[in-house]
Design a protein that fits this description.
Layout: H1 2-5, E1 14-17, H2 18-36, E2 39-45, E3 48-49, E4 51-54, H3 56-73, E5 79-89, E6 93-102, H4 124-130, H5 136-146, E7 150-156, E8 160-171, E9 180-181, E10 205-209, H6 213-224, E11 229-233, H7 236-245, E12 253-257, H8 265-274, H9 279-282, E13 285-289, H10 294-302, E14 307-310, H11 315-331
Parallel strand pairs: 2-5, 10-11, 10-12, 12-13, 13-14
Antiparallel strand pairs: 1-4, 3-9, 4-8, 5-6, 6-8, 7-8
Helix pairs in contact: 2-3, 3-5, 7-8
Bound molecules: adenosine-5'-diphosphate (ADP).
The site of adenosine-5'-diphosphate (ADP) has 21 residues, from helix 3 and helix 5.
Length: 335
């Protein structure tokens, strides 16, 4: 949080495939909603540019947070919609509105401001009933403002909530034209450069080892969005202990930060790999580091890690990597 407030979070300005981006959300949340008995729909109001220029990673984090909340606070039988529309456009820029509309428990009007502050939940019952930390929306609001947009909420207690996010993006022109899409049906087709992976990691136990609270919160929410059972440790010592205390074969994957106080990721991995139990050698361990230079990759391999993912997390890359190893780990019967 302090990192965002002091302006140390960097924004990327890159062209990305907006159609593929929305397709990934559609796949992910459709599946989750179906499992929960909730209706999920992505609605496109008008046509959209196929490509946008902006920070797709942050946009992903924003929408993941809002959709995860909607999923959390909407009971079976309810519905969730992600509505996407263009509010204004000129030659170079386009403003896009994202509305996350749910029929969940709702929020009382006097708390509209409060829920966007760090560590605030609507009331103490929320923490008891739904868990969570009250940090997600504070991150969402900060990211949105950093990107030059704004967020608001409207809700009726007991009937549902609508979170509205307005964000500006740059446009990509080919031969002076902006390519557009309007048929959401196209999204189920595999799109060049992405997803057609089924990111359903339900029932998989993942241990996330990360000392930075903000990074931990984001990673827990993003990776948890795949349905995986997430557990976390704040440093290497805690990670080794969590692994030692778990029944054999319990963890399907460990995501390990490298630089941590008490015991770093390399040492923690060496400890885990040296434990005298079968899964100590087979559990996939991914290193998470800001710099993935060849020598870092080499060092993590030497410590016994299987793969490298870079921070800030590129969620598509992470899901893809996870899907490879999680399938693989399933194919390893007791040797
Ligand atoms: P967390 O979900 O970790 O508690 P958030 O910052 O994401 O933290 O949300 C803060 C609070 O806002 C929640 O605890 C809840 O009281 C309220 N809230 C957020 N989204 C919704 C929603 N879609 N429906 C009802 N209440 C919500």
């Amino acid at each position: 949080m302090s990192k965002i407030e002091s302006g140390k979070v960097e924004l990327r300005l890159e062209a990305f495939d907006f159609r593929a981006f929305l397709g990934i959300f559609e796949n992910l949340y459709h599946e989750q909603a179906r499992n929960k008995g909730v209706d999920y729909e992505t609605l496109l109001a008008g046509d959209m540019p196929v490509q946008l220029v902006g920070d797709s990673l942050r946009l992903n984090q924003i929408l993941s947070n809002l959709l995860s909340n909607a999923m959390k606070f909407t009971p079976a039988g309810g519905s969730i919609k992600l509505r996407v529309s263009r509010t204004s456009e000129d030659d170079d820029n386009v403003h896009i509105r994202f509305e996350v509309i749910d029929t969940g428990c709702g929020i009382s009007e006097e708390n509209y401001g409060k829920i966007f502050e760090s560590f605030e939940q609507e009331n103490i019952d929320v923490a008891h009933k739904y868990g969570g930390t009250g940090l997600g929306l504070a991150i969402v609001k900060n990211f949105i403002e950093l990107m030059g947009g704004n967020v608001s909420v409207e809700s009726v207690l007991g009937s549902g909530s609508t979170f509205t996010v307005d964000l500006p993006f740059g446009k990509v022109k080919e031969k002076g034209e902006t390519a557009r899409f309007s048929d959401f049906g196209q999204l189920s087709d595999p799109v060049d450069g992405y997803s057609a992976v089924d990111y359903d990691f339900k029932g998989k136990h993942i241990l996330l080892v990360e000392d930075n609270e903000l990074n931990r919160e984001i990673a827990m929410e993003l990776i948890g969005a795949t349905g995986a059972c997430m557990e976390s440790a704040e440093n290497g010592v805690q990670a080794v202990k969590a692994f030692e205390d778990s029944p054999e074969g319990y963890y399907d994957l460990i995501l390990m930060d490298i630089q941590m106080p008490n015991m770093d990721g390399y040492e923690a991995t060496r400890h885990i790999r040296a434990l005298k139990r079968l899964d100590a050698r087979t559990v996939p361990i991914f290193a998470m580091t800001a710099n993935a230079f060849a020598e870092d990759v080499e060092k993590s391999k030497e410590a016994g890690m299987d793969a490298h993912i870079s921070k800030p997390l590129d969620v598509h890359a992470v899901y893809k990597q996870m899907s490879e190893y999680l399938t693989l780990s399933f194919q390893l019967p007791d040797k």
